[in-house]
Amino acid sequence: MVGVDLVLEAVGEPNRRRLLELLHQQHESTVSELVRASGLNQPQVSKHLKVLASAMLVAVRAEGRHRHYRLDGAGLQAAHDWFASFDDVWNARFDALDELVSTDPESSAT
Amino acid sequence: MVGVDLVLEAVGEPNRRRLLELLHQQHESTVSELVRASGLNQPQVSKHLKVLASAMLVAVRAEGRHRHYRLDGAGLQAAHDWFASFDDVWNARFDALDELVSTDPESSAT
DNA sequence: CTATTGCATTCCTCGTGAGGAATATATAAA
DNA sequence: TTTATATATTCCTCACGAGGAATGCAATAG
């Protein structure tokens, strides 16, 4: 399992989110391509990618002197699951209330 | 719609995540209760709650000299949706690959 | 071989953000 | 009224993290 702490700290940075979104469109990109697409300098891109990789948000594939980066589902899903654990909040499921009134299913008047 | 930037920056902080999880268990808590449960000092809790509130992650209800905080689904769902937009990554849908190799399904040697 | 390209890494500076202490503010109690 | 409680806010310090510049390093080109 992936540490959600690393993931959420990594995605807290706006430029890293931009890189993730660029990678989402391109499926796979070299560092040079990300530099051009993001407008960031090459060292910054490499450093951000390093952070993303240690959070299992991206994976690398070496090919010659090129490095092909792609999204890694592990980190993304870890963060997704963490927020999903709160889904009862916005789903407004009145479980406790439902249990309280479950003995009286007739009381469903508006 | 809630700004996902504010939300993801807010949840990037570990103690703020702890507060969110505490609020998730308690449904509603005063600042004092969160201070006791989190081990943080009162000013830090108030400051973190302020950040969480501006990201629509918590909502407040004033009652006498107490402030009752509870989770706000708006911010939580915004972050959830942002990660959900990447679900094709971990669902491992090889659409493009599938299209490329669809003429040769036998080539799956190790 | 040397030169060049693609990327990673190091060093430095600076801004920002988190924590601590003290204080301000508001509401309730006496 | 004075006092106590609950919370917010201000000020300060400090550490960490992001960006820039320069450099290192590996792989291809010539």
CATH class label of chain A: Mainly Alpha
**Number of DSSP-assigned strands of chain A:** 3
Number of domains of chain A: 1
The class by helix and strand makeup of chain A works out as: alpha+beta
Determine the mean pLDDT of chain A.
90
Strand order of the largest sheet of chain A: 1-3-2
What is the CATH topology of chain A? Arc Repressor Mutant, subunit A
* Number of DSSP helical runs of chain A: 7
Plain-language structure description:
Chain A is of the alpha+beta class and 110 residues long. The mean pLDDT of chain A is 90. Chain A has helices spanning 4-10, 14-26, 31-38, 42-54, 73-84, 87-91, 95-101, and strands at residues 29-30, 58-63, 66-71. The first copy, chain A, is elongated and about 70 Å long. Chain A has a three-stranded antiparallel sheet. Chain A has one domain (4-101): Orthogonal Bundle (Arc Repressor Mutant, subunit A), CATH 1.10.10. Chain A contains seven helices and three strands. The A-B interface holds A 5, 8-9, 11-12, 14, 17, 20, 24, 27, 71-74, 76-77, 79-80, 83-87, 89-92 and B 5, 8-9, 11-12, 14, 17, 20, 24, 71-74, 76-77, 79-80, 83-87, 89-92, 96. The structure holds a DNA duplex (30 and 30 nucleotides).
